[in-house]
Amino acid sequence: MSVNQIIVGLDIGTTKVTTVIGEVGPDGVLDVIGEATVPSDGIKKGVVVNLDKTTQAIRQSIAAAERVAGVKVHEAFVSANGSHIKALTSHGLAAIRRNQEISRADVERAIENAQAVPLDPTVEILHILPQEYTVDGQEEIKNPIGMQGVRLEVDVHMVTGSVGPLANLRRCVQESGITPNQLVLQAYAAGLAVLDQQDYDHTVLVIDIGGGTTDIGVFRRGNLCHSAVIPIGGDHITGDIAQILKIPFEEAERIKKRYGSAIPELADPDAMLEITQAGVQTSISPFELSRIIKPRVAEIFALVRGEIDHALGPIEIITSSVILTGGTNMMKGMGELARDRFRLPVRQGNPTKLGGLKDLVARPSYATAIGLLRFAGLQEEQPTSGATRTKATVPATPTPQEVHSHTPTPVVNSTPVPQPTTVLDEPVTSQTKPQQGQKATDGGKSFLDRLKDIFKDFF
Length: 459
Hints:
Subcellular location: Cell membrane
Radius of gyration: 36 Å
Subunit structure: Self-interacts. Interacts with FtsZ.
Oligomer: single chain
InterPro entries: ATPase_NBD, Cell_div_FtsA, FtsA/MreB, SHS2_FtsA
CATH class of the domain at 197-347: Alpha Beta
Number of helices: 13
GO biological process, one term: FtsZ-dependent cytokinesis
Function: Cell division protein that is involved in the assembly of the Z ring. May serve as a membrane anchor for the Z ring.
CATH superfamily of the domain at 197-347: ATPase, nucleotide binding domain
């Protein structure tokens, strides 16, 4: 990524719109120079349901971040979410000529072959993410370019979304005066923000619990190999509190954030909450509040576990640890309950390796926005690494290596190639006919002269 380049991440969530403006410092560290978060109610479960409200929230968030950063924003990387987003893994194969090194064109050809799967015309591809490569049966190869072999294989993780919801999302961003560089899967962006160096050696499960959805990303040695969206999030927890206690949704959200706990035993035993039920003041303990919260959080974790077990296998075998991120995971007791349900090491995922306003954004609620900035850097550093949709092309002419290492065998054509001839008025004979007024030479005597010579020799 270029030094002093301004990049923008726009996280459009169910309950809020977050804008983060970053700049790459001379030391290569990503400095956060602007951020802003505004509430939004134009999104439901990751999908735009009100164009005007969503556009207005984007404008407000962008304007506030611009004031903090002191720069004007024209384009941004935008998060994409919702239950319409699906993912699949496809296998691609490319044959390599004998004694040839694997070239970039060969890699692109293998990726292109992996894309040759039937897709519904109502969906579009968001990401084509190559996993590790296999050369002649040798697995776990990160970069096969320059290696020799005759068989190149790759597994590609393809992320797709419905055309309609994605078009509505782009329209909201464009009407706010911003050009969307690219739509990025929210779980992918969150993972890029919270994975640390040791996570790139293992398989890690990232769970991003937002307001309307829970996004799942399984990263195998740093590569996103499985993703899914569960249409349940923090708003459902708030709805349970509001329904059971018969209080307004806004009041339920307030007490959830301040006193809520996923495990009742961790709740403050001495505090009492004053709430208004049907116009009557009453009180409730944080312990009782947590007993309302725990079943819904346990349900979310059970759905996550069921998704991984069904798609990949037993979660305890597939993954080595769990990272919790997203605003809802900031609630007390989330890590303890996740550790109990998954029986794996669990930690809270906070964005790291930041400069500038890092004290404001080094929290789980900013993971997606920071991950969008990381994604922008990945695009510039590795433009054909598969971080985005890859269009594999086969070169029309052989590479210099192919020219030097393979000499074409001459081809003998069984059909004679006709030579250019001169069309004459008389049949062509092996002798040359003397022109008029010119005496014939010995090699071109007339019939009468040759007859005289024969009789002369006879007598």
